[in-house]
Amino acid sequence: MEHSSKWMILIASTWIQAFTGTNFDFSSYSSELKSVLGISQVQLNYLSMASDFGKAFGWCSGVSLMYFPLWAVLFIAAFMGLVGYGIQWLLIQKIIILPYFLVFLLCVLDGCSICWFNTICYVLCIKNFPANRPFALSLNISFNGASATMYNLIANAINSKDDTLYLLLNALVPLVTSVAALPILQQPHSQTLRADSVHRTMNAQRNDLERGFKYECLDGKFSWFKKKESWTSSFLLRDRLLLLGEEHSANLLIRKLDFWLYYLAYFCGGTLVLVYSNNLGQISESLGYKSEISFLVALYSACSFFGCLLSAAPDFLRDKMYYARTTWLAFALIPTPLAFFLLVLSGSKAALSAATTLVGLSSGFVFSAAISITSELFGPNSAGVDHNILITNIPLGSLLYGLLAALVYEANLGKPNKESKDIAHMVRLERKKETTGMETKSFLFKSIAIACCSIRLPRVFSSL
Which residue ranges traverse the bilayer (predicted)? Predict the structure, then answer.
């Protein structure tokens, strides 16, 4: 009964992930939002960054799970999404009028909702599957990547011509899913990981080592072991923070060099591919393939799904070839710069589809593997807080890459260009014109950053 209970919880959390990855369909309605608000491309980039900025407050969800019941945290997340996306739907339907700043705050609220849902699912997997944590996490997170595809199917079944329908679905579907999954998540399960289980286990191991073989004494004398006890204790206490899975508080975490190297790696990997997905609509439109946006979003979502599943491969290949999980993370970053260079060299539909496929596979692997890496390096019980501290680099990266694109755009905007009235036609037929230079330069800068990170990562993490 207990065994089936935890699998039911995994299934329920997987369905939550499948219907709460609402940030992946931003490209589907971003053009409509831009038109209704009458804003520039730079301002639209700030709105996509605002959703990422909401993840900077994701650590609150980990703290909330320590003090509030799961159902309360679940419905707080659903309510934030209902308010954030629901009001935006009213705006895009021209039922209400809102200033740009309030829309920015609503996007921040959307990002908070997504991050809270993710944290709930991560914690459930970590607690219920301590022995098979990476596999459970990869399976769970993979369905988050499939969210855009599922929303695309639902929207097309209702009205394939209404792009604003995505906002309404983003507001209602997560709430309905939370209500349906709550009875399963609330059932008792005795094999969860207690809050102090890791500390208790490691303390017990340490005590056994300190005592040595005291219990194998002869005539009740422990003199030899007592002489060694203080030496063993001092050795273990000195290197105790290097033990894999040892719990790291937030204060200790931010003082670790290992964490900041990991932070930089994620900044150059997971953050960049997320920015690509947020701007996929604008990228395809600038290349003259506006009608293919829904297809590209679904393609990215499907590839992200399979990328998450691939992140479990290291556990199955452990007996044949073993690499640290951080090394696999470095390998997973390689397709991203290749995709960007492909877009630089060719703006064809085939190149765009191939690049989206590569970025989707890379993003899925990185997002899924990152949870396991955080749990393994800094402790499973504090992973809900620690990983949310890690992803604070997402809004920073989103802002940096957005500003980079804006600066390149402004630099090229003032230059004379006779074909500026028909950007799509110009990009397809005259790739070497100056206007397309702003896109290629942006991709080139990002590609160089990711390529450098991919080369350096195996060396950086070899000591871990």
Answer: 65-91, 97-125, 137-158, 164-185, 259-277, 297-317, 329-348, 354-378, 390-409
pLDDT, position 31: 79
Residue 447 or 56, more confident: 56
Secondary structure element (H or E) that encloses residue 95, with its range: none
Residue 345: the pLDDT is 85
Full DSSP string of 168-224: HHHHHHHHHHHHHHHHHHTS--TTS--TTHHHHHHHHHHHHHHHTTTTS-BTTB-HH
Share of the chain above pLDDT 70, in %: 70
- The first and second tokens of residue 354, run together, are 């191939």
Q: How far is CA 334 from CA 4, 282, 328, 451, in A?
A: 39, 24, 10, 7
Integer Cα distance of 47 and 189 in angstroms: 41
Q: For the chain, how far is it from start to end, CA to CA, in angstroms?
A: 39
Annotate 395-426 with DSSP letters as a single string. Answer: HHHHHHHHHHHHHHHHHHHTS--TTTT-HHHH
The structure's pTM equals 0.62
